[in-house]
Design brief:
This protein is α/β, with parallel strands linked by helices. It contains ten helices and 14 strands. The chain has a single domain, classed as Metallo-dependent phosphatases (Purple Acid Phosphatase, chain A, domain 2, 4-Layer Sandwich), CATH 3.60.21.10. Strands 1, 2, 3, 11, 12, 13 and 14 form a seven-stranded mixed β-sheet that branches. Strands 4-5-6-7-8-10-9 form a seven-stranded mixed β-sheet. The N and C termini lie far apart (71 Å).
Amino acid sequence: MKPYHKFLAVALACLFMKPMDSTAQETKAKFNHPSLENQQSWTMILLPDIQNYVKFKRNQPILDVMMNWIVENEEKMNIKMVMCTGDLVEHDDIVNPDPKKMDQTGKQQWEATAKAFEKLDGKIPYVTATGNHDYNIFSYTHKPKTTHFPQYFPADKNSKNQRLLREVTANVYGNPSLENASYEWKSPHGKDFLFLSLEFAPRDTILRWANQVVNQEKYANHSVLLLTHAYLNFKNEHIETAKYDLQDANYGTAVFNKLVKPSKNIEMVFSGHIGSPNDVKKHLGFRIDKNAAGKNVSQMTFNAQALGGGTYGSGGDGWIRILEFLPDGKTVRVRTFSPFFALSSNTQNMAWRTEDYDEFTMTLN
């Protein structure tokens, strides 16, 4: 190419090239660098149901990306707690999976889940609910809802958890288990929190135990954050019932009426469970109700299990929620982010969901 032709080609390219305006630059920076609104804030990460990551070996690296992002950003984002909405596996005890539906046995799924959370062990405390898929109830018989969860998530798995652990109660085996447990923690701003996790469709005896826990005098001034699996549907309604052949099972409506509403200090409820292939809104729920003390209770369902190709797709495209607790002790900023999409410059423009149902503010009392 002759020199002047080369110069002309470069000049024309510059002429027609769209410059990156300041907004685009800021957007790109946001994709690359999640940050706190206030450097004095602390953060809680909410993980959705993860069963579709671990049931296929091909999807397990996406869960690793999510966990690695949490560890890598612990200091920058001041991450103090991780919560997971349950369904840690697709099938608790399957030994001969249909490879079209899952290529990992129940044992392999539990091992993959425990290994993923191992990245947080000794670094960041985490609380996980147990979901319907974590139990043996898919036989649709009158079996008790037994699970391998205690085997893979014993109380001493994470030293950070063990320091915060306060109350546990017996599971269906009659053994103390983190299926139903509470954890006490004081925020950097001096606010006392109690994280309470309940089994899928908690039994009446579990709800009585939970009431006793939150009503203890020593927790009277704590903000209680409740985690359970099946609570809200995508219409923002409390779930009344489910198809599983279980006796003594309480879903969202019963949990609200028997535990949340009568309480004076439960201020937030987190859950998962729901979803529909490639429909973001059918993975989400949110509502605010009053408890017995007249305090607002913010109730959030967050899931992503059928995004990224449906039930047999990617497992959820790596979506997590970042909850930033601001130093005023009341404001909680909610954002929805995918460390998976954020990995590549080709997908960073998809790493944040910014609709009003994915990016909003909650208020503690």
